[in-house]
Specification:
Layout lengths: L12 E5 L1 H6 L3 H10 L9 E5 L5 H17 L6
Parallel strand pairs: 1-2
């Protein structure tokens, strides 16, 4: 990607499996570079999904708050 041989312009779905492990292992700068600085479409033009077998308690609480917010606004929330 750094040699500009791969284009990300047409990406519609970005899925990161074991996202928590990638962050724990220090890959945040590389992930940010791909998502923010490469030719990746902006968030409104693509769907970003993070997958993990386990999520810390803080993430679970955040999800519950988000879920309640979506229900109040009667917006769809896909899990």
């Amino acid at each position: 990607m750094e040699r500009a041989r791969v284009s990300l312009q047409m990406i519609k779905y970005l899925a990161l499996d074991e996202a928590d492990r990638m962050l724990d292992m220090g890959f945040e700068p590389q992930i940010r570079k791909i998502v923010e600085q490469m030719d990746m479409p902006p968030p409104g033009s693509r769907q970003t999904m993070l997958f993990s077998a386990t999520f810390p308690k803080e993430i679970q609480v955040c999800f519950l708050l988000l879920k309640v917010s979506f229900r109040r606004r009667k917006l769809p929330l896909l899990i």
